[in-house]
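DM from R.C. (forwarded with permission)

"hey, sorry to bug you on a friday — could you get me a structure for this? deadline for the figure draft is monday and I only need the backbone to look sensible"
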Amino acid sequence: MLEPKTKTAPCVPAIRDAVAEWRSKDYPGVSDTTRKLLNYWFRADHRLPNGIPFRYHDSQKFAIETLVYLFEVVQVRRHKDLLEKYAVNLPNLRLLQYDNFARYCIKMATGSGKTKVMSLVIAWQYFNAVVEGNDDFARTFLLVAPNVIVFERLRLDFAGGKVFKTDPVIPPELSIFWDLDCYMRGDSERAYAQGALYVSNVQQLYEPTQRGNGSEPDAMTGVLGPAPRDLAADADDFAKRIVARGGPCLVINDEAHHTHDEESEWSRVIRRLHLEVKNGLAAQLDFTATPRFSKGSLFTWTVYDYPLKQAIIDNIVKRPMKGVANILEARTTIASRKYAGFLAAGVERWREYREMLKPFSKKPILFVMMNDTQEADDVGDFLRTRYPEEFGGEKLLIIHTDRAGEVSKRDLDAARRVAREVDQETNPVNAIVSVLMLREGWDVQNVTVVVGLRPYTAKANILPEQTIGRGLRLMFRGQSTSYTERVDVIGNKAFMEFVDRLEQEEDLELETFQVGKDKLVITLIQPDANKLDKDIAIPFLSPLLARKKSLSQEIEGLDVASFVCPVLPRKEGDDASRTFKYEGFDIISLQKIIERTYTVPEVQTVQEVISYYAKRIAQDVKLPSQFAVLAPKVREFLELKAFGETVNLDEPGMIKAVSSNVAQYVTVKTFVQALREVVVEQLVPTVINSGRALSETQPFPWSRTTLQAAKTVFNLVACDNDFERRFAAFLEGSQDVNAFAKLPERFGFSIDYTDSVGNLWYYEPDFVVLLDDGSLYLVETKGREDLDVAHKDRAAQVWCENVSVLTNTNWAYLKVPQQEFERLRPDTFSELGVLQSPLAL
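My reply, with the result:
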């Protein structure tokens, strides 16, 4: 994903460019611990405890990289400095009145995974504080929600440290240092741990005399208004406990689009904490999709911007679709009659979703937004009476607000329960009617139809993205990257004009559909019970590779005398500050797979050069914690091997000899090649499942091209591109092919492999083919070669060799490049044998 270039906050463009350059140079200036975290998070594939593949989105990667760069590398930790450095030529920018600690705002579109970034931030700060002993970093954290519903959403992720256990946040080699307790509002303090995360809604942090007084404006309390007085929570003051732990402390504000009010009690609580905690606050991080001042401009401390438009393009959120309808409002003051046409259209669209989603065991939600509580009651009663089977009784929920725009106390429990449970298939609620927007905290994934029947003005203090914001979260999150989900928006003229503002502000053009004419179609891919004779069973093996957790003994045991390398000249080198480029090539394809540029500054001792080489080697092989073990081996190499004889490194002139460009190149390259052979351990595979049938695949939705075929067990061949579709058609027509299938991601088959620098990844082949003679093939169709193709090829070949022996079946691997396939124009699968590379079969 390319980072967006749309109109944004004043500092974002310059920061984005600086971070991109820093990233391209492989993160210079970070601690060994930070480098280890970044490598683990973003330079490897992961599996969740349930076996589902997991990768952080680029948007999440760019967000944490931005924070690391600003806080750790360039250390710009004041708002004034931020503007002076990254918004140089922009006059009249508003400075924060209080600028006593680092403050950054992360703008990420609704549904794009802000909570994931928060967990990475906490781990980054904690490990640098504990492992590196860096006093600038925090090991105590306060995560603040604006209301009860947001708090309860955060509780699901952080209670008991859940997110740190289920997501790949903590590298295995750092797990020994992880000692962080997570406290939810009302939890009592436990035995002392190295770190602590406190999660609360902001009202619980106010002074007791200020809680529950109803004085906070709607902008502060969001959807729910102030929480009811909770005596148990009053007696449990997180602020005092944080002060007792000492600092620095990191404050994270979720749904923080109201924190620009520096005189709000929310902001006062944070400043008071900074004054009371020893060493103060490390930083305040504001996370929100809409960090806007009242006049519309973005917060000037916004450092990263991932807009809704980009999230839609990246398929991280649903794609909003505007319903075009020639529906007129009836001339009456009775809401259910006035808007009867819009309500009927919304219900019909909801019914289409209900039928389409049944095979996936998903329940769609209809959300109707009204102008006032009286209209909401009227429309709710109308829907219950007109459509009793769909919306009668508990199947429809009405949420009221009071005159201040806050959720009525009588509806508070229902609102909280819906936010937690409405997406569950067993939950009876099919529709929600309310004056409220789907605003912060309503993380409802199953909203598919929004019917808006109210105007929105500047006085309402509602932003366009909030009109559809909570309908944007993916229903099939983590299940398919090849299905474009949508949320349909239908409404009267006043409402749709407000939605038009969203297009203007986000610089996007929403697609439309004709209400009542364009029928909803969701392509279903599933096994066909009538084609089980074309089913194929694929064995599952235990992992073939594992990255070793401890390498100290292997490094200490390296025999430098056996290294194969050129003999270095003993003459004095050129300017030691000159740069040199290291390029690594695949031994078979001769394709360049790695490139690094190095510069050694002017040095005074040989030990400085040795230390520099050891750090660079550890960096390239992703072994920053092994620097201390590597340094002696580098010295041994230079003393006994590099110069073709034993040398005295302390002799005059040897500094120039060992720090020359040639010496740099040979030393780094030789050690990197030697270490890659010991970094990853090759395991003896065993059979986990001798043959899992493709017919066991659960139904999944698909938005890309498909092909009808008789030789596959699926109802349709789900293809990612046109070449795959053409290849599938070839397999369907090939006389020697008995059965085939495009391997779906939902089936969960993958082969582990390592890339050119030893990172572990998961490779998913494209097709499986069964020939008439009983032989089986894994087939990879290639339109364009990527850098790791040789590693994938080798891993697939090894898998086929192992499974052939372990299951006594004949498996082989074949790669089919697009250009060669189109040039060959084969009639049968066997004719593809001429395309076999040295790594195939």
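R.C.: lifesaver. The chain has 27 helices and 32 strands.
me: no worries. The chain has a mean pLDDT of 83.
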